[in-house]
Design a protein that fits this description.
By secondary structure, the chain is mostly beta strands. It is built from no helices and seven strands.
Length: 71
Amino acid sequence: MNISQFANSLLCQYCGKLNTVKEWPDKGDIVPFYYQKEKGNYTLEVLCSHCKNTWYVVWDENPGPIRLLMF
């Protein structure tokens, strides 16, 4: 299991509302990331809980394996 300070405050690229994910890469908080509408080299797919559009959290460098978050 994993923890993150960012995984519960991700801004949708379509509607701008906050989203939360249940999985996050091991080093996802350490490796710089950004949001975009297209997949990148290292991505986490997010389905907006408000507008139902899919967008991505993207890292340029490998943030490690994606694991379930501890709550």
